[in-house]
Amino acid sequence: xxxVVAQEVPTSSSMAVPHGPxxxxxxxxxxxxxxxxxxxxxxxxxxxxxxxxxxxxxxxRHGRPLGRHTDxxxxxxxxxxxxxxxxxxxxxxxxxxxxxxxxPATPSVTARGGRGLNIISALAEEWGVRxxxxxxxxxxxxxxxxxxxxxxxxxxxxxLSELDGLDxxxxxxxxx
Length: 176
What we know:
The chain is 24% helix and 20% strand. It has helices spanning 24-37, 42-62, 116-123; strands spanning 12-18, 76-83, 89-95, 126-131, 137-143.
């Protein structure tokens, strides 16, 4: 008689990402591959990858590396994601804190930045900020199928990734 042992497939991941643009593409690629292997829908994967990119960019622009108390320098931030039992996906990025709090901005039409948290707000079921006693700041985002707010793409489903005929998310997965 053979004994079969059920093994639970991991549905979470955490990785150190260099503080700066170098590791963002690698993090997006890893997230996309893992979430697809978990069976997460393409629309949620696309939204999550965009959210991860925005969170990492904000952490590198406005936060300090983990474990460092300098304004600029080498080090890492932490990216993590997990799928819960109901299919909800939580994306988190943790940095060493910074001089400002993560709040959505109202940039001018010609501003080069300042739209990231507004994009996240449009795609997320909810998001928030968690502070640790050590000074670390974690921005977390909950993404669910069909749960994001409609943001004017005309189809009312709340996902940028489902614009008809446009699958541009893979173009940004530069694993190297």
